[in-house]
Automatic annotation (TrEMBL):
One of its GO terms (biological process) is sulfate assimilation, phosphoadenylyl sulfate reduction by phosphoadenylyl-sulfate reductase (thioredoxin). Residues 302-427 form the Thioredoxin domain. It holds the Pfam family PAPS_reduct. InterPro entries: PAPS/APS_Rdtase (IPR004511), PAPS_reduct_dom (IPR002500), Rossmann-like_a/b/a_fold (IPR014729), Thioredoxin-indep_APS_Rdtase (IPR004508), Thioredoxin-like_sf (IPR036249), Thioredoxin_CS (IPR017937), Thioredoxin_domain (IPR013766). This is Thioredoxin domain-containing protein. Its cofactor is [4Fe-4S] cluster. One of its GO terms (molecular function) is metal ion binding. Keywords: Iron, Iron-sulfur, Metal-binding, Oxidoreductase.
Amino acid sequence: MASATASISSHSIALRDLKAARIGAVRQQVAVVPAGLPATAPKGQCRPPRPRRRWRRWRRRHLPWRPWTTRPWRRSWWARRRWRSWIVALIEYAKLTGRPFRVFSLDTGRLNPETYELFDKVEKHYGIHIEYMFPEASEVQDLVRSKGLFSFYEDGHQECCRVRKVRPLRRALKGLKAWITGQRKDQSPGTRASIPVVQVDPSFEGLDGGAGSLIKWNPVANVDGKDIWTFLRTMDVPVNTLHAQGYVSIGCEPCTRPVLPGQHEREGRWWWEDATAKECGLHNGNIDKEGQAPKVGVNGNGSAEASAPDIFQSQAIVNLTRPGIENLLRLENRAEPWLTVLYAPWCPYCQAMEASYVELAEKLSGSGIKVAKFRADGEQKPFAQAELQLQSFPTILLFPGRTVKPIKYPSEKRDVQSLLAFVNSLR
């Protein structure tokens, strides 16, 4: 974004009225001229300078899902939702292409007032009308009457999100052949680290129905959040005023709160739940329920391998067996605290934290704190889920000296400083 965002733009954008034909990176990712057509178009034209009939023949042959089409209800293949600032960045790029586009949003009925104000600002700024999708009134009524307004604090947010978000989105996507999201890999290293740039949507169906009928494009998957903000400031686009109050990832009002310095941006969402539960179901196709790497499309990361070699190999780390960790659980007065990671060697998130965990173990060597590991996949997984609070890999537990029940590390930040602060505060 601007000159700082290599994955979206390799050119500096200084003025708002730059035409899309002059923005190289936008042409690469948003309005690519297909091979076999002229690379340039006359000034003011979006379509290649070929006769309409020949263009239509080429399009039918080479673009089976036809994002460019003359039918009004298929005309726009830009579709967006979730009103955080990087979504406005996508709208800005869509506007710069000069092509027709549509924007839709899910109105759950429980958004912040500031988010509704942003809707109005965006519509006026870009001269567009946002298409709002609402949940079925009868479904919301049944949920609230049977479980109350805040049942998600007690039994998880998935049921509420399914009624207010997932089903309305499913209805909206049934009329499209492609949609664009603002997912980024750095939003949540624990669940979104393998988001592809382009994929066949694994969760929803498009206009033609059936598997493979909907294309999902995540153009900012590889873009850093700081570069998004650089672009937003450069282009002077509307943003949600909640960002100035410490909110980063913004959803429904009851399920969103500001994050503290050093916290990851999605730690302000559904903060009462486990880190791997911080998804509402709209992008479940990118997340493996077992904690493995998700299935990927273009530009994604690899999948997990069950035969991966063991990790956390260090003399400073104790390798606990099943009897060893059972004894640790039973002890009421431990001579020294134990920091233990529940891991699976094939898990990419466990592999990613290996260096920091080994470094932490070496720092704590001789300090009176034991650092250990316990392989909790395979046959040990049911035990770990029942007794060790395992929901996803990796799970980090601290067994304090005077507390029987282990304390689970709540954050997705697994660098040495964060883990050390956790240990020192509870040892």
